[in-house]
Amino acid sequence: MRLMQLQKPEVKNNRKTLRKLPARLAILKYFLEYLFAEPDAAFFKSLGLNCVRIADDDNPRVLKTDGFRHLDRAIETCAKHQIYTIIDMHTAPGGQNGGWHCDAGVHIAGFWVHKDFQDRRVWLWEEIARHYKDNPWVAGYNLMNEPAESHSTGLVHFYDRVYEAIRTIDENHILFLDGNTYSIDFSAFPDDAKERWKNAAFTMQAEFLQYVVYGFPASPAPHDRDTYQRKRAWMDQRGLCVWNGEWGPVYARREYDGEETDEINERRYNVLKDQLDIYALHRLSWSIWLYKDIGFQGMVYVSRDTPCMKIFDKLLEQKFRLAVDAWGTNDRYVRHIYQPIIDLIKENMAEVNRSLYPPIWSLENRVARLSRTMLVAEFVVKEWADTLKGLSFEQFDEIAASFKFENCVKREGLNNLGTIGQ
User: Fold this and answer.
1) Domain hosting residue 293, numbered range
2) Is 236 within a domain?
3) pLDDT tens sequence across 294-308
4) Of 25, 192, 403, 420, which is most buried by a Cβ count within 10 Å?
5) What pTM was computed for the model?
6) Catalytic pick from 76, 149, 207, 246?
7) Per the database record, which ranges form the Glycoside hydrolase family domain (predicted)?
8) How many CA atoms lie within 13 A of 129 on its CB side?
């Protein structure tokens, strides 16, 4: 088998075409090209890493070939450096869980409510399998990121459906199956999982394994290993292949955490080192979250001297202060505002009735998600959009180019751990 080489359009013509597009579409297309390119793959390989997990409608069931163009480019770039890719369907129509990263806009996982959403997901996986079935540098397909289906049986039924659909087209690639409830619960999975879903790996994006609690702001004492050992035992007893698709601490940032930044990050590097030692001991394959961002968790991150970070500087500070992110947020400036809501529920609702699905959301977390990260965040969005009004094509291009490898900072404390991939 060989990689299919795609003709790349001339940059000059490509830019001329993009100038005719609305600015929001032009910046998106360039952002995708700048985000991961040849220098990124070379750096990634230099760390001893050999696999990248790539996280992927107004017109459902009409395939957007331009999407394949960008995905093909990333996969081919990795292949040149002998890096495998895992295609990760990170969101689903309607949202496969109530998390912010599903782009559903609400805390209800509508994917499990409407069969048409599930049908569209199966159809898209068929198209992806058809496109990549002969590509040896695609390691496999991560069918659904962190599903949360309150009855569990719906997830198993969906896996049965999509497994059959893909295997009709592609018998070679590994299928990566996340557990239920954000990939921590395998209790409803069949005992014959190994025979039922052949050539599959089971994804433990779970508590201790994933984003260790004490890697986050305002976190409690170190978590023990019970969760990991329990989940690992379930898989080992059945002879299943295990993979951790996401993990890694959130790092302090000097502009927000001040003089404590280095001390905080040193503790988080120690967390990461402990996890790597456990993975090595148990021969567990993993994919770190994530490669590139604006300074939150990335192995490399956009420099604060770039146009992107300069134009959004005040808004990023506002977002941090209001704690409108659901991810690794420190609520120290607004905790007193939301505490009365928490107290109201505690005082008027029996404890048994305060435990809603998913159980990993505490009462405090649920109040934060519905009030701060949805209600307040909805008002913040317009301010971000207004910041971009009136910008020229060249200015949009500069913002997108901020994500080029040469405009990023390497997180040496993370990247030098041992070397991380060896």
Assistant:
1) 2-302+409-419
2) yes
3) 999 999 999 999 999
4) 403
5) 0.89
6) 246
7) 41-291
8) 23
